[in-house]
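hi!! sorry for the late reply, been swamped w classes. u asked for the two structures so here they r. pasted raw, havent cleaned anything up. first the sequence of the first protein and right below it the tokens
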Amino acid sequence: MIDEVPYLMHRIDAFEGMLQRAWDRLLSRKPVLLLLIGSDLSMMEALNSYDRPFHQRGREMVVGPLNPADIGDMLDLDPASAFDAALVTGGLPLVCAEWRPGATLWEFLRESLENPISALLVSAERSLAAEFPPQAMSREVLRAIGTGERTFTNIARAAGGIAHTTLTRATDVLTQKRVVAAELPLSQKPSKERRYRVADPYLRFWLAFLDPHMAEVERMRGDLVLNRIRERWPSWRGRAVEPLVRDSLARLLPDGELPAAPAIGGYWTRSNDVEIDIVGADRGPVAKRLLFLGSVKWLETSPFDSHDLAALHKHRAALTDEPVPLIAVSRSGFSCSGLQGTYGPEELLGAWRGRASTPPG
């Protein structure tokens, strides 16, 4: 078993050729199972590419993080709290292991922030140090995206006004390594309004709330960091949960009159005067047919109401003239009718177990 293979590939010339010769001349004739392990997916996938020594010599297996249902079971959390935990831990087992079963989000954060070497605080820094050297511009760009900048122009400004070519190179590296997702609006017309987001929920949380204030944690003032998280948590969570909601719907559908959607994304305009959280279509990013549109309202006590439905109708009219079905996702229930599908935390969590826990209304 060889761990940190991307590091060896980067540091040792002809590492793959050396390993191939060892396998062909010695190991393949013995009862040996060779496991090559690495966290850099792009480099690990390259091992099996056409022009590399190990092409078609083995099997690839991606070991993903714990999903929201796994997290809820492991930590004894209700469905809504399980999604909160997924956004904070990213499903990383090392971080989840420090969450006491049954503890609330705020209890976990308080305990983690009291310990400067907790997994919540140090795991991201160790991962970034392995992926990107400290002087790499990719880290500055990642920090800009992690603080909430989503457009190319705003990211360049937040990263210190770096040049267009430098930013392009950095975003290419980040997307190739799957650290950052580069997304286009999903609609029936092509668009160049690309937006960027940190793909891993845990890293997104760490960059937004923990990385800028590590000095305070080291001075044992985690209470100040916790207060900032409390203030920003509702608005940050409302956007951060959207990719997880889309993934849940992709697993849940078809459901009743709603079909399975080969592509589920979002829609926005440059000015953000029209922004739709959920767009289901036959393909993406340029669809032939829109299958449904939807809105996400992920607040503690405020249900999805008639005002939210009216806004969704308005945005649908700006996107299409067709009577595309409308759905809504809410953490706190619904107080209006007229939707073709409604989903709460229970239904979404059930999708990760292969079925909805209760039929959606």
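now the second protein. again sequence first, tokens right under
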Amino acid sequence: MSDTFRAFVADEKDGKYAADFRNLTTADLPAYPVLVDVAYSTLNYKDGLAVTGKGKIVRKFPLVCGIDLAGTVAESSDANFKTGDAVLVNGWGLSESESGGYTARQRLKSGHLTRIPKAFSAKQAMAIGTAGYTSMLCVIALEKAGVKPGDGDILVTGAAGGVGSVAVALLAKLGYRVVAATGRPETHDYLKSLGAAEFIARADLDKAGRPLEKARWAGAVDSVGSKTLAMVLAQTKDEGAVAACGLAGGVDLPTSVMPFILRGVKLLGINSVTASAARREEAWGRLAQDLDIAKLDAMTSVEPLSNIKDLGERILRGETRGRVVIDVNK
């Protein structure tokens, strides 16, 4: 590979945020022990914020954007990884405090690398990406909180997005009856193909409600936050649990203590960015076991890195569906 390659880099110019394509060499990369030839990255909500500059994601400059990457080890001074190993990175501050995956090559800390399970190709690993890995962490958290398929309906908010799509597929395969919340009726057939049994309009959740509403959900996966999460908590059954992993609707939470002290509802915060190696291995092992590859392929599209500016705008407007894999070499 040529020592010159293209990357999408966030920087500051005259005190203002600027993100664009730039040619780099390996000398421009961090002085970390493992050099990876990157094949694919992903498009996540945080990527949209970083690419467009509409959210304070990038914390130092210049920095390569992209919170995920998958590829093969090109060089390694760490005995735990050798040339040719198939690896991925989810989170760990990529595109925030560490240079990320929107590049053909990247140097990384060995402790941030996860081996790609043999069940997945690099492209499939990025079809899962941080969104799918986060979904699996949510499902595991609900299971550990005691939520079982026979307990009643499981709600997934933002169901047509990356986290939501994988959550619907996982939960349905595990035997849960899934109700999908979406503001796009045109995605109902798509979500039904992933395993959704019923639908609820996003607007029915994205509104102010009473401290306690009619109990409907045995559990939920929420990637929206704000009024939506507050409504979901108010509608959760006795001893139910809600796994919260996103803030697409806002960072506030206008709720009360009532769901927690009168119904024993559990709010489970999901941190995928700095999860331990053990939790990551558990999640990826479960994904290899529980995620239907055909459904993964059905929810996935592949786009070239050259389109990343438009894609960043589209995901912030809620116009993407499922998982978008980024081919960083196109």
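hope this helps!! also noticed smth abt the second:
Residues 122-144 form the longest helix (23 residues).
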